[in-house]
Specification:
- By secondary structure, the protein is α/β, with parallel strands linked by helices.
- The chain has a single domain, classed as Alpha-Beta Barrel (TIM Barrel).
- Helices cover about 35% and strands about 15% of the residues.
- The longest helix has 15 residues, at about 30-40.
- It is globular.
């Protein structure tokens, strides 16, 4: 970390997670505080992403995307697609967050771009 003499992968990836236990109401200032803290600790050579659990999932994704973060959604973090409505699949949540991101005038990474951003090799290059 910057100034602490600790080595991190280059560029390091930081993920901000807020859960129902820690966050009753989503507020942009909370995400901004986490981003500022990461900036202070890691400088500008890192990628960051956000995820929110439970009912915080889409608001956190929207706030993070507006601030330049990568976003993560999925049934592992929330079973919901909206107030009182269960998501039938991860695809439901991905479609919804895609609408949010594109509504902000931003582009969604293709699967190949996402693999490159996350330094993943892809399913065709693993031995299982």
């Amino acid at each position: 970390m910057k100034g602490l003499g600790l080595a991190l992968p280059d560029p390091s990836r930081q993920e901000v997670e807020r859960t129902e236990q820690h966050l009753v109401h989503v507020h942009p200032e909370e995400v901004l505080h986490m981003k500022r803290t990461a900036d202070r600790l890691f400088g500008d050579d890192y990628r960051w992403s956000v995820l929110g659990a439970g009912r915080s999932q889409m608001p956190i994704a929207a706030i993070g995307a507006a601030m330049g973060a990568n976003v993560r959604v999925g049934l592992e973090d929330s079973l919901w697609i909206g107030a009182g409505k269960l998501a039938s699949s991860n695809a439901d949540q991905v479609r919804q967050v895609r609408q949010i991101i594109e509504g902000l005038g931003l582009a969604v990474a293709t699967p190949d771009e996402a693999r490159e951003i996350l330094a993943l090799k892809g399913g065709d290059k693993v031995g299982f």
